[in-house]
Amino acid sequence: MAPDPASIGIDGKVIQEHYENLADSYNEFLYWSPDFVGQMTDKIVNMLALQPDDLLIDLGGGTGMYSLAILERVSLNNPITVVDPFPEMLEKIPDEAPIIPVAAEAVEYSEKAPVCSKILMKEAVHHVDRKAELFRNLHGSLRESGRILLVHVDPHKVEYPLFDAALENARQSFANPDDMIQLLEGAGFEAHRDEFVYPHDVPTDRYHRMVEGRYMSILTSLDEEQMQAGLDEMRVRDAGTDRLRFTETFSYILGVKAA
Questions:
Q1: What is the per-residue pLDDT for 173?
Q2: Which of 84, 86, 77 is nearest to 120 (CA)?
């Protein structure tokens, strides 16, 4: 059963509709390339220090894109639990994958989360309103020396080839890394910060289709008139350009529970 939209966080009903509509094209839009996902995942595996006996929760894991990539790199002895508030996303996880899908909102799930050793939140934390409560709950669920890793776009380093209104929305919506460190430390974690920078090179028409399909949740708050004006702005700017090249900078915030 899907959670109450009001519990999801920022503009719950809008976000719910966004992911319900995006589910079928999510992997197409957000996969980018095998190299991108591979490098992102390698860093996730290294910072979480994943071992075969780990109990991993992928919180806000959507279609399981990164859990599946992790399983290609680490032979875990236990299935990964992928938690997401939207069943439409979880349904895209292959049935044969060693993954347990759970339809639940992050804070509500954390209140009764099972004991685990590692937690991943990939581009999900900015959707959670009650972050301090979430981190306190997850600290209690983690074993000693357990780890939580937050991976999200750094709002201070947004360089997407979007239109101005969307760029401003991105800078205001993504989680501030300094705030995340403070909240993790307040919940009892030792916090460490790193980052990952990837140079994208994508066909212009593909990126325009992605934006038109509102591939990022930050586009959901813009109405149709704003979107059409923005797309027109991009088409004029990118006229005669076959490919778009830009960098995407992700913050990797690691919280470690003291032994």
A1: 86
A2: 84
Under a CB-based contact definition with an 8 Å cutoff, are residues 87 and 103 in contact?
yes
Range of the structural domain that residue 33 is part of: 5-257
Tokens of 177: 């890394």
Rounded CA separation 187/73 (Å): 30
H helices then E strands: how many in the chain? 11, 7
Angle at 133 between CA 129 and CA 135, to 5 degrees: 100
Residue 127 is predicted with a pLDDT of 86
In angstroms, the CA 88 to CA 103 distance is 9
Strands 80-84 and 99-103 come out as: parallel
Q: Whole-angstrom distance between the N-terminal and C-terminal Cα of the chain?
A: 37
Q: What is the pLDDT of residue 33?
A: 86
Distances from the Cα of 17 to the Cα of 122, 159, 184, 196, 217, angstroms: 20, 26, 30, 30, 10
- Here the CATH number for the domain that contains residue 241 is 3.40.50.150
Report which of 108, 85, 73 is spatially closest to residue 17, judged by C-alpha positions: 85
Q: What is the mean pLDDT of each run of 10 residues along the chain (259 residues)?
A: 40 51 57 89 98 97 94 97 93 95 96 96 92 97 97 94 91 92 97 96 94 85 91 96 96 94
CA distance 81 to 99: 6
Model pTM above 0.90: no
How far CA 199 is from CA of 29, 35, 69, 244, in Å, comes to 16, 11, 20, 10
Please tell me the predicted confidence (pLDDT) of residue 142. 98
DSSP H or E run through 191: strand 189-203
Tally of domains within the chain = 1
